[in-house]
Amino acid sequence: MARTTRPHSTDYDYHVVTKTLKHELSPKEIDKAWEQFDSGSLSRNELSDLLAGNHSGWYGNVRTDTNQVLGICTEQYGRVQNADLIGTIEEAFDNVNMTDYEKNVYSVRDGARLYARYDFPNKTQATQVGDEVGLRLTANNSFDRSCRISFSLGLVRLVCTNGMVTMEDEYSMTKKHTQQVSVDFIEEAIRNAVQAFDDGKPLQVYDRLAAKDITQAQGVRILCGLQKKNLLSTTHRDSIESLWIAPTLEEDKERNLYNLLNAVTQHLTREVESERFEYSDGINRKVLKALDKAARQPTQFDALIAA
After folding, report:
1. 26 CB neighbour count, 10 Å cutoff
2. Strand (E) positions, the chain?
3. What is the pTM of this model?
4. Do the beta carbons of residue 154 and residue 165 sit within 8 Å?
5. pLDDT digit string (tens) for 98-140?
6. Kind of pairing between the strands at 68-74 and 162-165
7. pLDDT in tens, 71-108
8. Which sign does the torsion angle of CA 293, 295, 298, 300 carry?
């Protein structure tokens, strides 16, 4: 069975158990409750009950090696251990003959969330401008009720291995958080994601960006506009602007929105992603949406360069 893998980025094989929360929350548990309220995982009434010391049926997902509370849940919430999920995913890959992949795993927020990334360099498509991209599937799991177990469909630009997000919806691997994951359900999610990739649907946004020519000066102004909209920090904008003005690849010398985006993904992939995975992914998605609006709607383009 041919398989190529890279070492995972962070440890993910820790165990999580569900425990009844104490009546008096620790400072860390209080901080975690506020974080979940801010993210929408807890309602205001649920937060008030927890902070008041009323149990009201809530439990904590506790990481056994560090004793950290990763998330607050009800008794019905089903945990899926990271190692079990990854093992089941890779069994499903075997079953659908997708065994040649590169793997990286990111455990973030003290282990509350997991992202397992699988790149398939031999599963490729070409954009209209001639770039070749490979299939990327990223599985996610959480112990803080922040997300459903699912795959997100992404791309890898093979000329430089920069990561590219798509605008596709996630492909769910479970109907809800349950204590078991089904190989059959995961195989269905894999097939749906691969079919979308084969149909070329994720590439359409990049073809739109490539069709929108801009000047070098407009590219700089767009980056400033993205900064003013709080989609880029000053530091990131400066680094991306340098790549836009002086591309490191011959393929990026054309002046269009696609190659402007490539400057963004190059910076994020090489300088940000390994240390701040979720932050990098969030910027990537927000910038793609903003540039796609600019490519499709002249008023959005004008607003972005005038921001």
Report:
1. 11
2. 16-20, 58-63, 68-74, 102-108, 113-126, 132-142, 150-157, 162-165, 171-172
3. 0.82
4. yes
5. 999 999 999 999 999 999 999 999 999 998 888 999 999 999 9
6. unpaired
7. 988 777 778 899 999 999 999 999 999 999 999 999 99
8. positive
